[in-house]
Amino acid sequence: MSFITKAACVGGGVIGGAWVARFALAGIDVKIFDPHPEAERIIGEVMANAERAYAMLTMAPLPPKGKLTFCKSIEEAVKDADWIQESVPERLELKRGVITKIDAASRPDALIGSSTSGLLPSDLQSEMHHPERMFVAHPYNPVYLLPLVELVGGKKTTKATIERAMLGVEQIGMKGVVIAKEIEAFVGDRLLEALWREALWLIQDDICDTETLDNVMRYSFGMRWAQMGLFETYRIAGGEAGMRHFLAQFGPCLKWPWTKFTDVVDLDDALVEKIGAQSDAQAAGRSIRELERIRDENLVGIMHALKSGNGGEGWGAGKLLADFEAKLWANAKKPEADLGDVKPLRIVDTKVSAAWVDYNGHMTEHRYLQVFGDTTDGLLRLIGVDLDYVRDGHSYYTVETHIRNLGEAKLGDALYSTCQVLSSDEKRLHIFSTIYNAATNEAVATAEQMALHVDSKAGKAVAAPAHVLSKLAAIAEAHAQLPTPEGVGRFVGQKRA
Ligand SMILES: NC(=O)c1ccc[n+]([C@@H]2O[C@H](COP(=O)([O-])OP(=O)(O)OC[C@H]3O[C@@H](n4cnc5c(N)ncnc54)[C@H](O)[C@@H]3O)[C@@H](O)[C@H]2O)c1
C-alpha cells in the first residue's frame, strides 16, 4: 500500500539528509526544516551520493524523483505531510520540544517517527496532544541504502500506528522490524554498544590497534553477519546437532572472566588521541566523502550478492531488494508502444553511471550486454512475458549474442535502445537491438540475438502460448516491412563492406 505521498524531515544532518534521499528516490515529495545555514548544500551532497548509489543498485525504473522544499519553520514543513521524520540531535529536551511542535502543526492522522538512537518513545511523546501516532523509527547509516528500521512504540502509541508504519517503510524499500517492548537503545544499538565497549578495552589495553580490530571483523564474522545474523550463524556452527549443541559447547565460556563488558573504559584525552591517531593512519589520507563512496559501492555489491543468493531466490537484504524491484517494475508506466508501428521499438532510456565506466572513463564492456539484456526484457514485457509469467515456469532464454561496439559512451551520457524483431516462430525469437547516444542519435552498439521460449522447470524449448505469440506476431509483421539493418548476420573477423 502506498499512503505516503508527502513527507517532512525535521533535522537534515547525517541521518535526516539520508531520510530525505530515501523518500525522494521513492518518488515522495519532501519538505525539510533544518536551521543549519548550509543545510541545503549538505542535503544536496547526500542526495548526490544516494543517486549515485541507486544507479549502481538497481536497473528497475525508479519513480520520478520527489520534489525537495526547504522551509523556514517546522510548521511550514509538516503541515500537509503524511509521514514526518524527526532527526534532530540526540538530546531529550530538544527532541521532546521539536516533536511537541510537530504534533501541534501537523494533521492529527500524520505519522511521526523519531530517528533517536536510544531515547524512549514514551518520554518523547509525553507532551503531545496526539501521541498515539508517534513512534521511534530508528534507521542505520546510510539510510538510503541500509534497509533496516527498528519500529518502537511508546506507552501511548497504538498498534494501528505501528502497522501503518510497517507499510510506510515497505513503500520506501525498507525492512521494518517491530521491537516488542521499549527499552533504551532498542536492539541494534544495544548490540553495537556491547561490542564497542569491548573493542575500546582491547585498544586501551594495547591488545591490538584499530586497524587490526577492524580486520578481525571484516575478514570473518562481519561477512557472516551480513547474510545470516548471529543465531542462524551459530546454529550452523553447532554442526549437525545445531543450536542446542552449540549452546552446550560454548555456553559455559560465557562465565569465564574473558569480558570487561560491564566496566566502561575511561575515554580520557590520552585514549581519544590514541584511537584518533590509529584511525587517521588506517584511513591513509582518504577523506570521509571518499570513504562514503567506497562504503556505498561495497554495500551495493553485498546486496547484489545477496540478491542472487539462495539459488537465485534472494536472501535477507538481497531478497528485500528483489521484492522492491519487482514492485517498481509492476508500477512502472507500461511502455506505450503501438505493437503494429513500422519502426524499431524504443525500449530502454538510461544514463551511463559512475559504476558503469572503466579506467578510460568509457562504459565498460559488460554494461553493453546489460543494456541489451534490459532491452530484451523490455520487449518481452511488451508481449506479456513479465515476472509473473517467469514465476509460472516459462521464459525466453537468450542462446546467442553478437555485439558490435561502434562508438564510445562516456560517464553521464544519456542513452536509449531500440529493438527490431527480425523473425520469430512459436519457439524462436530473432532480434536486433541498437544502443544510441540520446544527444546525437548516433549508434553506439548493436546486438543481434536469438532467444528460445522455454519451459524452465523441464529445461527445454517449448512453443510459447497463443496470447504471447499473437502480440509477437503483430510486432514481427510490422517489422517485416523494415529494411534489414546493416550488421545483421555479421560474425567476428568478417571483412567490412
Ligand atoms: N549518525 C548515525 O549513525 C545515526 C544512526 C541512527 C540514528 N541516529 C539518530 O539520528 C538523529 C540525528 O543524528 P545525526 O547523526 O543526523 O546528527 P547531525 O548532527 O548530523 O544532524 C542533526 C541536524 O539537526 C539539525 N537541528 C538542530 N536543531 C534543530 C531543530 N530544532 N529543528 C530542526 N533541525 C535541527 C542540525 O542543524 C543538524 O543538521 C539523532 O537522534 C541520532 O541519535 C544517528
Summarize the structure in words.
With 497 residues, the protein is α/β, with parallel strands linked by helices. The protein has 3 domains: 181 residues, Rossmann fold (3-Layer(aba) Sandwich); 97 residues, N-(1-d-carboxylethyl)-l-norvaline Dehydrogenase, domain 2 (Orthogonal Bundle); 146 residues, Roll (Thiol Ester Dehydrase, Chain A). 42% of the residues lie in helices and 19% in strands. The strands form 2 sheets. An 8-stranded mixed β-sheet has the order 3-2-1-4-5-6-7-8, sandwiched between helices. Strands 9, 10, 11, 12, 13 and 14 form a 6-stranded antiparallel β-sheet that branches. Strand 12 and strand 13 form a beta hairpin. Helix 1 crosses helix 2 and helix 2 runs parallel beside helix 12. The relative contact order is 0.07. The structure holds nicotinamide-adenine-dinucleotide (NAD). The site of nicotinamide-adenine-dinucleotide has 22 residues, from helix 1 and strand 6.
Helix and strand arrangement:
Layout: E1 6-10, H1 14-25, E2 29-33, H2 39-57, E3 68-70, H3 74-78, E4 83-86, H4 92-105, E5 111-114, H5 121-124, E6 134-139, E7 148-153, H6 159-171, E8 175-178, H7 188-204, H8 210-228, H9 231-237, H10 242-250, H11 269-283, H12 288-307, H13 316-331, E9 345-351, H14 365-382, H15 387-391, E10 394-405, E11 414-424, E12 428-437, E13 443-455, E14 460-461, H16 466-479
Parallel strand pairs: 1-2, 1-4, 2-3, 4-5, 5-6, 7-8
Antiparallel strand pairs: 6-7, 9-11, 10-13, 11-12, 12-13, 13-14
Bound molecules: nicotinamide-adenine-dinucleotide.
Nicotinamide-adenine-dinucleotide (NAD) binds at residues 10-16, 33-36, 87-90, 98, 115-117, 138-139, 141.
